[in-house]
Amino acid sequence: MSDAPQTDAPQAIRAEHIIKTFGSVQALAGVSMQVRRGETLGILGDNGAGKSTLIKILTGYHQPTEGQLFVDGTPVRLGSVDEARSHGIECVYQDLALVNGLSIYHNMFLNRELLWGGPLRLLDHREMRRRAAAALAEIGVNIPSVELEVGALSGGQRQAIAVARAVYSNARILLLDEPLAAMGAREAGLIIDLIDRLKSRGDIAIVMIAHNYAQTLEICDRIMLMQHGEVTFESPAASTSAAELLDIVRREYRAARAG
Amino acid sequence: MPDRGSPATAGVRWLHGLLLRPEASVVVVSAALIVYFELVNVNFLTDANLETLSQFVAAPVIIACGEIMLLICREIDLSVGQTFALAPFVMGYAQAIGLPAVVAILLAVVVSGLIGLIIGMITIGLSVPSFITTLGMLFLINGATLTISRGFPANMPDGPILTGIMGAWSYAEIVWAVAIVAVMHIVLRHTRWGLHTIAIGGNLVAAAESGIAINRVKIGNFVLTSTLGGFAGLMEAFRVGSADPLAGGSNIMFLGVASGVIGGTAIAGGAGTIIGGLVGGILLGVLQDGFTLQGINAFTFNIIIGAAILIAMIANIHLARWRRGGP
Fold first, then answer.
1. In this predicted complex, what is the ipTM?
2. Number of DSSP helices (H) and strands (E) in chain A, helices first
3. Does residue A91 sit in helix, strand or coil?
4. B interface mutation test: which of A83, A110, A114, A169 has the most B CBs within 10 A?
């Protein structure tokens, strides 16, 4: 799999001139972005740059004050998280939304549990175990048993379970909120490998919020810098460098201070 | 390992697996107590005493089934003992206006459930902690019962079959209790409702992000607890043959909560088992009954029961850590 963005691949999600205000605060001041199938977009920026607001608009958690979203080229209104899900948009939040006291397979099927047929609507534990194990194996996550409690797993494994859950639920547009935050090199490696394998499937568009320039450049096909609710820089990952990105951010910072 | 399949190692593994279960320590303690009481008192394992024991255990265990569900999703019902006392009077009132006994019983159960619905609506809808909501309801329901009854006990209806089923037959209560335990165990372990109850108590944010109907589950568990409390109160009244405005109360509520907690339900939510509640209820019953047979007076008994709860809790917390492989 090359790092070059697939410019001929069909467009998965597009946002046009998104403005979002909370009362008198403008969180997004006209952001446009798009991701193609099989492409990975990394969004970098300081706290308060609007990254999280943008992600929450893409997941249907917030609705834009102005602007238009398109999924597969069709204009959509994402009024709720469920509506976004029905378009194949899944988000792995920073808190991962895992329940420590429950097993891996229960977490993977949380609120989408499989049931035995019949009027009693009992849980089909066996089928959930089987499918959870298969789903993890398919994306190459090695975990001894899906019956382990999630609380017993490492940070990287937990992240992997959360990503696997999103992928398993037929995500075609996967949003990752700081997937590498607070993770050691080995743990981060696990997730980077996982994202690489998802990319190589070629059908999933990934949008990832991150802080670490070097890691983001390594993982993503394209980079977007955000500041004060605007996109200030955009480039294929292959034609920029951590040094250049850092330089841009530093210049923005100085300009903001001078202004 | 050549002897992997031999019966001896299989037995050891089975025993090991059993000991890893949260209820195991309580089962061991209960069994040890039963042996002890049988050794020091020849009357312990007799038909008459087992009957007494089963009657003492039944109501707290039924209440525990509800409280465990509430504790797991980080709520509690302090007023279930008052609903317990109210239900027989609702039934009596319904009979007095001419409704048949079966309808009167159903009406009492429904009214109990409505109390749970009110508790749930106030707790969820008005964001009042359930500890406070049910503290208020405790006095409110108690006052209602005293008003309806004017403070006097009332007779229960006659009719051998109905009263027998409802609690007058010696073992009716424990049969109901075991049946309710079986159903609630399946609800907790094998339905979405149970799984969502655990998820809500384990990680509220995760439950919300997964789209679980948090309010519906919580309110449902309040309704469930009150319904079970009212039903247990009816049973008790049928057994005794009269409705007592001072029956149940905080005592039976605490016995129910203690049964659950001794049986391994986490007071902080997210974990618990119904079977543990049954075993915890049996442990409390064995303690009370055994020491009563030994002639220990009521004052000393409370010291013993308090110490038992503390020891069981300390043991549970540390055994749980040991099971997780931590320090």
1. 0.82
2. 8, 10
3. strand
4. A110
